[in-house]
Every structure is written in structure tokens, then in C-alpha cells.
Task: inverse folding
């Protein structure tokens, strides 16, 4: 597209959790399918500088970008939908905005002025919004504002949007996502909360251009006209967003409602190609018409909150679709696994995945799960802490190192098979000691990993402090656990495998962050395949569901 980058803002009203991230990602997908270049950014109104230090119970998974930023899980959706990498610039928090402004103030950059929310905080927000646009590679920057309009925390963001709309005019557009609650007593959807939410936005000086209305039931006749009249928008700009079977249906539902066309016409873009969603539809067809199903256990300590393992769950779904198989995830609480109950809890599984994590809680349960997978030759994938636990388990139960442990769990262990890297020991600040982002890895010829990746040199994303302790490397190899992936610079172990097992792989990195609809991750594809070989049930009565759109 010629001309300047267009900025699209997505705000939310009435309640949180309406799915702004999925709507943003779906719009981005539709624009991308028409040949435009798009990126999505999330503005989070909390004071944490990034979500890296937040407990997953608070915030769900922390998504890690190629450049090592710890970000909101919505960035995972953006990457999975678009198959385009995001970066540190794609997630900005109030904490980061204030930190930058205060640092500038300390350096005297405000030349003695009183530093205020308007204009200094709002200027900082506007500059972060435009950083991506200034790269000159995007036709569209979609900026999603976290929280709900009317919250104290999001006021400076809405004010920054008001200013940008004023300054940029036709290059900006605002989409407001609201809820149409359903009253079962009268069997009606109600528009009043939407009207109030738009009023709230108007009182802050922002007139939304498009309203996306989340609803459990189809909108009644005349409802779009009513909303349009009360909220000063065109009827075609009132978009119905019904609950979907899967998030991957939402782009097609938005296409049917004409969201992308309204966006383009409001931004004055009249010439554009048809959307090519061939790959997307192909994925949906396979995802919705599995020929078999397979049970895979996901062992972790935050399983009550599924969002804590969002990328892993999605990667398993992508891999399931690639294998035309439905992956039934059994969520298994590592805290509750013991030597006594492990065979009852895991006995019926065809694959066991042990999840990443921090801290001591649930560790012994994870180790029990791994012992069970190893001894019973059940396909096993250990990710990050899951891989470290596999090393500990092997040390304790195969090599006789009864005290084998990670120094994260026991700093004084006699056998610190997992330990902190020497050059990280000096870094005191908790947020600063992690190995974050993409690092290269060399894969050993003849290994299972080599057949899976089909290449020698890979890169994968990391988020951890502790590593395989290389002083034990030879002893492990002799005992049957081999390091088959090594970081070429630091000689750090990236992948371990057990030879005498049909499929046993531990990875120090996080393959789940790289899995997208367009490119399901080979490790997950192969793991699901191994689980299917172990045992899967054919689905005979499966109805062929045509992907819509
Ligand atoms: N707690 C471990 C470490 O810091 C593993 C981290 C993870 O699983 N992401 O090394």
C-alpha cells in the first residue's frame, strides 16, 4: 500500500475478557490475507514494567518474543494468527511508560518543566504507538488497549488516542468492543450497556468509528440500526460477534460481517485484492474434522488456570490439526501426583508433557510423572523446567545420584545437575538474570531431534535462569541420556534425549512460542504423532464440517 501507516485502535467496554486480542488478531489476519502488512501492539494499563515478574495466576502465560521481551499472552495470539514475529515494541505497559518518563526527568530532558500526565505521559504513549509505524514496513498498526474504558488506569491511553485521532485525522480509526447481555427472563439482548460505554468514550473525547458487539445469541432485527442511531455510527459499522466454537473461526466470522471492508472504506482505501484464506481454511478443515483422537497429559502446577499454558495448548491444537487428530488434553496437577497415584492418573495417556515453571512447588509430582513416562515408554516432552526435571529424575533413578537436584530447589544439593550459569551468578536483580529470547542450537547428527527438525542449526526462544550442569555431561551420556542439542557459543545443553525409549525429548527452550497456524511446530507435530502411535482412537462418526467462508 502506498501512503502513510494507518493506525487502528481497539478499546473495550462493558466488561473485560470480551476477546479484544482475538478481534484484533482476526482483523489483522483479514487485512494480511488481502496482501497488506500488519502488526499488532498491546498497551497494558498496569504498573508492572512487564508481566515477567507476575504470577501466572494473575496474568496467565507470559509470552516471550524473539528479542527476549516478556509480554502479554495476547501477543501469542497475534503471532499464531499472523505468523509474523512481534518484539518488545509490541507490548507497552504503564510501568514502562512511567519508567521512561521518570528516567528522562532525571536526565534533565524536560528542561526544568513540571512533568505531568498530559502532555508528558501521553506524549510517551503516542511515541510508543508510532514506533512501529515509523519502521515504514507496516500498512497497518493495530493497537489494542488493555482494560475497560472508564477504568482510571486506561484514561491516559484513551487521551493519547484522542490526540492522535485529532492530529492524524483520516489515518486513524477506533474500534470499540462491547457486550450485548442476554436477559433470559425476557429472552432479549440489551443494548443499554453498549450505549453507556460509548457515552463514556465520548466523554473522553473519542467517537468510536466501529462497534463490535459480543453476543451469545444472534442480534435481533433492527438492533444494529438502534445501536447505530444511539452511538453515532453507520449501521454497517455495527458488527455482530457471536461466540465461536474456536478462536480460529473468528476471522471468518468477522469477514462475513464485513469488518475488514468497513475498516478499509473508513480509512479511505478503495482498491484492494480479495482475501486469500486458503491456508487458514485448510487448517480449519483439518482441525474440525479429525479422524482420530489422542489423550495427552499436561502436567503443571497452574493447571486450574488454563491461560497459564496458553501457547502449549495452542501448539498441541496446531499439531493435532497437522496430524488430523483431536488432542484431548488431560490437565494434571503436579502438586497432586505421588508415587502411589501416578499410574492411576497417567495410565491411560498416550503422551505426557511436563510444563515449564518456577520454584519448588509441584516439582516432585513432575519427577514422578517423568519416571512413569520413562519406565512405561510413553512419549514424553519436557519443556524448560520439564526438561530440567527429566535430568533430575534420570540422575536420581537411573544413575543413583539420590540427591540430584536443581540449585533453584536446593542450593546445597550434593549433585547440582541443574545449576545457574557462572556468568549469571553476579546478576542480582531478579528481572535481569534470565536467559531470554532466541538463541541458536546445534543438533547432533543421528538424533531424534535431528530427524524432527530436519536440519542441524535451529534457533528457539528461552526463558530461564538455570541450565544443565556440564560437569555431568559424560556421566549422563554413559548412562543413556544424551545432550543432542547444544548452544554453539556457551556450550549450554538445549536438548536431551533417552536412546532406550520410543520418544523422550527434553528441551531447555520453549518451542510452543514458535508454533503458528501457518507453521505448526515440528516438535509438537512429532510428539502428537508419537502419542498417536502409542494409542489413539479412530473417530468414525465424525461429520465433515465445512470451514465457513
Ligand atoms: N525455573 C527454571 C529456570 O529458571 C525453568 C524456567 C522455565 O520453565 N521457564 O531455569
Result:
Amino acid at each position: 500500500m502506498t501512503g502513510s501507516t494507518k493506525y487502528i485502535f481497539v478499546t473495550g467496554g462493558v466488561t473485560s475478557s470480551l476477546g479484544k486480542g482475538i478481534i484484533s488478531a482476526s482483523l489483522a489476519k483479514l487485512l494480511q490475507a488481502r496482501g497488506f502488512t500488519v502488526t499488532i501492539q498491546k498497551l497494558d494499563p498496569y504498573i508492572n514494567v512487564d508481566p515477567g515478574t507476575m504470577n501466572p495466576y494473575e496474568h496467565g502465560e507470559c509470552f516471550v518474543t524473539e528479542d527476549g521481551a516478556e509480554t502479554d499472552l495476547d501477543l501469542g495470539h497475534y503471532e499464531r494468527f499472523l505468523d509474523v514475529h512481534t518484539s518488545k515494541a509490541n507490548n507497552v505497559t504503564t510501568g514502562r511508560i512511567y519508567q521512561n518518563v521518570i528516567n528522562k526527568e532525571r536526565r534533565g530532558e524536560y528542561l526544568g518543566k513540571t512533568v505531568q500526565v498530559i502532555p508528558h505521559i501521553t506524549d510517551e504513549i503516542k511515541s510508543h504507538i508510532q514506533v512501529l509505524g515509523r519502521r515504514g514496513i507496516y500498512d497497518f498498526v493495530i493497537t489494542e488497549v488493555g482494560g475497560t474504558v472508564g477504568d482510571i488506569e486506561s484514561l491516559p491511553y484513551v487521551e493519547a488516542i484522542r490526540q492522535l485521532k485529532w492530529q492524524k485525522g483520516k489515518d486513524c480509526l477506533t474500534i470499540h468492543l462491547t457486550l450485548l447481555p442476554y436477559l433470559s427472563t425476557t429472552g432479549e439482548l440489551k443494548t443499554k450497556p453498549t450505549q453507556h460505554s460509548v457515552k463514556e468514550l465520548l466523554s473522553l473525547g473519542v467517537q468510536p468509528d466501529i462497534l463490535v458487539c459480543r453476543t451469545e445469541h444472534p442480534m435481533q432485527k433492527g438492533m444494529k440500526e438502534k445501536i447505530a442511531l444511539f452511538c453515532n455510527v453507520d449501521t454497517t459499522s455495527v458488527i455482530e460477534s457471536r461466540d465461536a466454537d474456536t478462536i480460529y473461526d473468528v476471522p471468518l466470522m468477522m469477514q462475513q460481517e464485513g469488518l475488514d471492508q468497513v475498516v478499509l472504506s473508513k480509512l479511505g482505501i478503495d482498491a484492494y485484492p480479495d482475501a486469500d484464506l486458503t491456508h487458514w481454511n485448510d487448517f480449519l478443515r483439518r482441525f474440525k474434522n479429525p479422524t482420530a483422537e489422542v489423550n495427552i497429559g499436561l502436567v503443571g502446577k497452574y493447571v486450574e488456570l488454563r491461560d497459564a499454558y496458553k501457547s502449549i495448548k495452542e501448539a498441541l491444537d496446531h499439531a493435532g490439526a497437522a496430524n488430523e487428530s483431536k488432542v484431548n488434553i488431560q490437565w494434571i496437577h503436579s502438586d497432586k501426583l505421588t508415587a502411589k497415584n501416578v499410574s492411576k492418573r497417567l495410565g491411560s495417556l498416550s503422551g505426557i508433557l511436563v510444563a515449564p515453571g518456577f520454584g519448588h512447588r509441584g516439582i516432585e509430582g513432575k519427577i514422578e510423572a517423568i519416571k512413569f513416562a520413562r519406565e512405561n515408554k510413553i512419549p514424553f516432552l519436557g519443556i524448560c523446567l520439564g526438561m530440567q526435571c527429566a535430568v533430575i529424575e534420570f540422575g536420581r533413578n537411573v544413575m543413583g545420584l539420590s540427591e540430584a537436584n536443581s540449585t533453584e530447589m536446593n542450593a546445597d544439593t550434593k549433585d547440582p545437575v541443574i545449576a545457574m550459569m557462572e556468568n549469571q551468578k553476579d546478576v542480582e536483580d531478579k528481572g535481569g538474570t534470565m536467559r531470554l529470547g532466541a538463541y541458536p542450537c546445534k543438533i547432533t547428527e543421528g538424533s531424534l531431534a535431528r530427524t524432527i527438525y530436519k536440519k542441524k542449526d535451529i534457533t528457539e526462544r528461552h526463558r530461564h535462569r538455570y541450565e544443565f550442569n556440564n560437569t555431568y555431561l559424560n556421566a549422563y551420556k554413559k548412562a543413556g541420556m544424551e545432550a543432542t542439542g547444544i548452544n554453539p557459543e556457551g556450550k549450554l545443553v538445549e536438548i536431551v534425549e533417552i536412546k532406550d525409549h520410543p520418544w523422550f525429548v527434553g528441551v531447555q527452550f520453549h518451542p510452543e512460542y514458535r508454533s503458528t497456524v501457518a507453521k505448526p511446530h515440528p516438535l509438537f507435530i512429532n510428539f502428537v504423532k508419537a502419542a498417536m502411535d502409542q494409542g489413539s482412537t479412530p473417530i468414525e462418526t465424525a461429520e465433515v464440517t465445512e470451514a465457513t467462508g
Notes: Residues 356-358, 384-385, 388, 408, 463-466 surround glutamine (CB under 6 Å).
